[in-house]
Amino acid sequence: MRARVLLRLALGVVLAGALLAALAVPLFLTPGLATTWLAAEVNLRPTASIDDPLPGDTRVLAADGSLITDFYTRDRTPVTSDQIAPVMKQAIIDIEDSRFYQHGALDLRGTLRALVTDVGGGAVQGGSTLTQQLVKQTLVQEARTPAQAEAAIADTLTRKIVEAHDALQLEGHLSKDQILDRYLNTVYFGHGAYGVQSAARTYFSTDAVHLTTTQAATLAGLVQDPATLDPIDHPEAAQQRRDDVLTRMHQLGHLDDADVTADTAAPVAVQPGGASPNGCAEATTGGFFCGYLQNYLTGTLHLTQQQLDDGGLVVRTTLRPDLQRAGDAAVVATLPLGDSLAGIYTVVEPGTGKVLAMSVNRQFGCDGAGCTSVVLNDAAAAGSGSTYKVFTTADALLDGYRFDFTQTTSDPYTSQVYKQNGGTRGAPYVVSNAGHYPPTLNLAEALVMSSNTFFVGLEDHLGAIDGPVHTAQRMGLYSLTDADAQTLIADRAGSFTLGPLPTSPLALAGAYATVFSGGTQCDPTPVTAVLGPDGSPLPGVDTSTHCTANVLPAGLAHTMAQVMRGDVESDLGTATRANIPGHEISGKTGTSQNNFSVAFVGSTPEYTASVMVENPDHNQDVGGFGGGKGAQIWHDAMLPILSGQSTADFPPADAAYLGSLAHTTGGGCSFAVGNLQLPC
Question: N or C, which end of the chain is more exposed by having fewer CB within 10 Å?
């Protein structure tokens, strides 16, 4: 027996010497964890670096600073040293490496002891310092293949050499305090929590800086075996391990008699906070906005998904939670969650392009009934009907027409320019009104009442649809692509003004916002800032707004906004359901052919919001017109917002675009749309 012990001891000394000799070999490491030789030996990733910035959650924040969601591969929120409770640091040192501040990267006394213990079984175990553990944890978490993962935890001398060598390298350029902080931000605590901050939130709904002694001891004990010592799933095992930590802290003089007695007598008290939300399917609010944002970040701003998942970024967005909540309630009030018809509500800010809310009577990112992973607010799935008459109107005004332009059109009306099937030959294009309209109307009345025959007649006067198509594009209707425009113009599609083209609700809201901003077109944006882990703007990422002034002359835009108030506020209007007394609201309704979709776009000077109702999967009669479900959703979404604030008035119309409709009296310039008197 004595001979066997001596033999094992001798072998242990030999193995320890082999370890030290291996560490003395000049390995010429690349910046990071593994040399070419070691990478070949243990199949590690050669470019992995233990002192790279730690991967952390990317936090996505609403305009008011509240959390929308996180993006992450592992739930980790790195924190600074002063954001970790001192007792947490002491607990982890006492239980894992009590001589941490006395020894170097390696504790040779502990390593030799472990070698002597394990040599008989041919495996090398134990004796690891916190620095070595940090190396191992990093190798495990950086593993990209099963072979790398297996090599990172293998109980072999080769793996120990890698671990020890990299620990020496690490302690050569990081202080003990820095290593401890990085360890606490790296180590896995179970329940999906990486790092002490995520662990504190997951198990105790608190921050790492506020951890109590018993909480810190519980977390420190978890490191040994996060699965079986989980205080949520295995409270008895967790309590026993916690008490071991507390006892060790007492033995080392870091906890007095009274405290250790009281702390070990208390049961493990968890207050689970759950994992951080991950991705848009788990967004706390605005799932469709989040989906649009993610596409914008990776598409328009050219971030990679890995940057989002591991970059520890902060993304500040334009989402207004109050507008989002109001929109969410409004769409389901008219169309219940999971209805075959989708109610799609989208809000932008005129003059900036900020996307303020996106609501749909669906859940985003899930499977099954009532779910979709398509951002319907930005998808061009259905036509928006007579909302396109605004583009024809704007082009006519740019071409010298005025709102007093009057014509008489029959019903049905036979076009003198456009053909039923496009081109220049064949049967003429014939159009009817949806209801009864006076045959003689001026442009202001026709826009408010939405006369189909008048607007095809107006297209006849213009002679081609080139102008209205290009005006729509300049106003920001980006779902009308250049290819679409070329096809429409080549086909001489007289139906353009009736809006059969599949239209993005966001593009529609943005294009209308050009009118309500006084003629400034702004590309929609969901982002105000993308910050790196250090809190500074991420280099190369342009989050500025992109606006073009004077797309429409200000006077023209103001006049259109005033006239379109008639659609909501006058007796001629088709969207009177959207009216909210005490606020100026301008807008336009639309209904596609066969009632397969309806739309309404309404605006105050502060908010432009589109509503589209459609079945995004197949054609379905949605029932009614844009002034029904569309205007109702808009009203219900805006009522709680506008009731709590005053809103500005639209600027007066420009008499130059009104012609004979403008009247100057002692009270100033005014004009009428139906029973509504408007300023000019």
Answer: N
β 371-372/363-364 pair status: parallel
> Are the C-beta atoms of 170 and 134 separated by less than 8 Å?
yes
Please tell me whether the peptide bond between 412 and the residue prior to it is cis, using omega within 30 degrees of 0: yes
Cβ 596 vs Cβ 382: under 8 Å: yes
Is residue 242 a contact partner of residue 266, using CB atoms and an 8 Å limit? no
Q: How far apart are CA 352 and CA 516, in angstroms?
A: 11
Which part of the chain is CATH 1.10.3810.10? 2-53+78-265
Q: How far apart are CA 330 and CA 16, in angstroms?
A: 72
pLDDT tens per residue, range 659-668 = 999 998 877 9
Q: To which residue do tokens 């259905």 refer?
A: 382
| pTM for this prediction | 0.89
**Mean pLDDT for the chain?**
90
pLDDT for the residue 47: 38
- Tell me the CATH class for 382-527+546-679: alpha beta
DSSP-derived 3-state class of residue 143: coil
Cα three-residue angle 387-392-396, rounded to 5 degrees: 150
Q: Which of 562, 571, 535 is nearest to 671 (CA)?
A: 562
Which helix (H) or strand (E) is 345 found in, with range?
strand 342-348
Question: In the predicted model, is pLDDT for residue 7 greater than 60?
Answer: no
Q: What is the DSSP string of 154-204?
A: --SHHHHHHHHHHHHHHHTTS-HHHHHHHHHHHSB-STTEESHHHHHHHHH
